[in-house]
Predict the structure.
Amino acid sequence: MGELKTYVEKISTDFYLLRVDDKQTKYFEALWSIPEGVTYNAYLLLGDRNILFDSWKHTYANRFIECLRQIVDPRDIDYIVIHHMEQDHSGAIPKILTLNGGRAKVLGHSLARGMFESFYDMKTEFKPVRDGDTLAINGKTIRFIHTPWVHWPETIMSYIEEDSILLSGDVFGSFSTPPVIYDSDEEKVSGYLKFARKYFVTVVGHYSKHVLRAIEKLHKLGIAPQIIAPAHGLIFRSNPQLIIDYYMRLAKNVPIRGKVVVVYDSMYGSVEKGISVAINELRKKGIKPIVYSFTDIQHIDLGSILSEIIDAEALIIGASTYEGDIFPKIRYFLEVLAEKVRAGKKVLIVSSYGWGGVAGSKISEKLSKAGFKVVSRVEFRGTPREEDLAKIKEGISLLFNVSTYAGGGSKENH
Ligand code: FEO
């Protein structure tokens, strides 16, 4: 394990970032594989009164205190703002409060009080903030904005009006541990967005509608921040609108034209044979699909698959019938897909069975119920015959009723 990387950085005269790069967590929320790591960002506003905004995951509580002490004695913290109770941000707060002697007022959504007490078995000097409440402090105005369900019901943001700094919590955040703290390098930001996309779909994708509502609310309030300080990843100050627009595009489910994702299992090669024909047919149309497979030589984590599907135009799902149901890995993938991605994408289903076909119809039912548009379902017993392959080709035409698709798709064969 490498040395733990932390940042204590002055963002403006009195505003600081405290960031830790977590490369130890293999599965975020014990669920999403993150070889790219994740950061936890807390912030501190100093003055006559000292305000801490959030903290880090409990694993790093001691290190958080060490970093905090480089700027301020924990006993001198007057307010702690909780934007979001998930423990990747609230985890070090109990330790801070203990060192603080319990004198700091804890500010947050009214729901956060009960969550805090039940998560940490600890009472606090808690003061709920209502939507639109302001705190005049150190010659500045901090406005609290309720943004429920991004990511949990108690989520709020803070806006430091005089400095135009928006502390946005999970929203506008990302996975990965970039070697810089700002968005100043366009090339780095461009590489970073794929982690933002993966973070979006896995963590807040289920709440896309609420993400849009939050962005609209900021707009209606006339908040066009010069600095976006999220709880994960880069701080945006060169081009804050970029991350707002990117989140909006993902939340609106705007597809990249011609982007196709293929996800299939193949136990002994029958499904794969049908899928290969579908892929060839796409290539003839100038489309390079992104392909993920569950076979006897590889399995792929769902976060990576979902992060490509979120902005795809169409999907091809291939699955075997397994014990009277859909192949388990595909079954689970479909459940998560329906929860995380807003529907509307077109789907072609390719399915194989040995003695009783079940998977094809079940996939069709599940996806249609979730609002996807199943354009065709091709099921065959054992290996696909010529007539099955012809139906697959027809299915591709139904997905894309144009002869060529210049510039569509991207990399393939994951
Ligand atoms: Fe980064 Fe929902 O916590």
